Amino acid sequence: MESFYYAAAVTFVLLVSLHHLLMGRRKRLPPGPRLAFPILGHLPLLKKPLQTTFADLASRYGPVFHLRFGSRHAVVVGSAAVAKECFSGDLDVAIANRPHFPSVREVTFDYTMLTVANYGTVWRTMRRVATVQLLSAHRVSIMSDSVIARELRAMVRRLARASAAAPGGGGGAIRVELKRRLFELSHSVLMEIMAQTRNTYSDDADEDMSKEAREMKDILEVIFPLVGVADLWDYLPLLRWLDVYGVRRKLADAVNRRNVFVYKMIDAERQKLEELERKNSEGGADDSDEKKGMISIMLSLQKTEPDIYTDAFINGLVANLLGAGTETTSTTMEWTMTLLLNHPHVLKKAQEEIDSIVGSDRLVNKNDLPHLPYLHCVINETLRLYPAAPMLLPHEASTDCKIHGYDVPAGSMVLVNAYAINRDPAIWEDPEEFRPERFEHGRAEGKFMMPFGMGRRKCPGENLAMRTMGLVLGVLLQCFDWSRIGDGEVDMTTGTTGTIMFKAVPLEALCKPRANMSALLQKI
């Protein structure tokens, strides 16, 4: 009997010690809401859009706080100082992984796409190909002179012709759904860069999208809303087993359509490469990499490194860059035009700068961009207020680490609220106002922004995105006058699903050729 009491006492002491140990560990986590639901954690308490909910929680719990998404720890960072800490030194490596969600697995070939792959050999290979063959400063400069300029002229030509055919005489204002036009252009640029192929678009037709762009847009409109960081489908196995809401079915259908789309590009490039090699063997072809698209270069590498550059690898990288690159760039340009329509004095000031620097005898080109500082201020202010990925992409701690002095267990998700940081009143005066002048004359120098992320997982497409946005917005403002439809301001409501901050209602505007550009528009 005594041995029983002794064993019970020892067990009690061990349990109490374990309890205190666990409580001690729990106390070292960042602060956060005490109320959490069984199984679901804090998920039922989170209202969308998440970036505004997280900003509210940060005002209560501080620049770093802790939540539970199901059984997963989540640490949310909401200050510039802590964000800099996260993406510096050893901590940048410690949180360089990506969290794995079932919905993401469905659309990324088991997490092997560039944006969602864990930090390691496969990710480094994909990033190297993307940065060298598509997104390097040299490639972006070449593309600005050829691909972007050509696609931009085609869009301007279609808008001018649609205006000329408008009722009531030539040159009238036409109603334009800008997101579709901007998506078409961004998609066309990436298609040509990757596969040196142009969308099948009848230039004489009054259409705003090609067949290929419509197909990709339809696919992405299924995928993006269903892939997030706080969707119940990812945390409750029962919802996945029963496929409640049809998420798995919808994603599988979208991925199948995307595979058909991308493999068609790959097969076409393979045929062109074989023809090029045949001609080269006869001494009649230039097979330098600068003359090839990204897919063709990877197919060439496939011959020497077949285990790395598989068709699945190429498919994943192309699908990732084509989808993410098209959607984020076109969305940011849509927000920019929305802000300009709601602030016509800013729009006019940007046009006056373009008129004084470029004139009306030619279109804005890449060499003009360094001399259009106010246009650059407009783009920066848009990125501050409406970053395409307001929470960036989620990170995951691969090992136990510390953020701002708090313990972050391995496997924790780390979210950085760029939206809140960009609107921090401690950094930005009147942060909710659209005021491009805040970036003039180096006034914003030293102020922290990260619209493309930071550290090892920073978006590699920043150069291409900034160049594309500068050229597109510059030419649209140079060639056309833009005005709102109706008397009220354009609705600025944001979407509530996915990781990209879409505009809830696609932007429509009135577009009319500017009188001083009529002669040039007739020649384009």
TrEMBL record:
The chain crosses the membrane at residues 6-24. Heme binds at residue 459. It comes from the Eukaryota. Keywords: Coiled coil, Heme, Iron, Membrane, Metal-binding, Monooxygenase, Oxidoreductase, Transmembrane, Transmembrane helix. SUPFAM superfamilies: Cytochrome P450. Residues 259-286 form a coiled coil. The keyword S-adenosyl-L-methionine does not apply. GO terms for molecular function: metal ion binding; monooxygenase activity. Its cofactor is heme. Belongs to the cytochrome P450 family. This is Cytochrome P450. It comes from Urochloa decumbens.
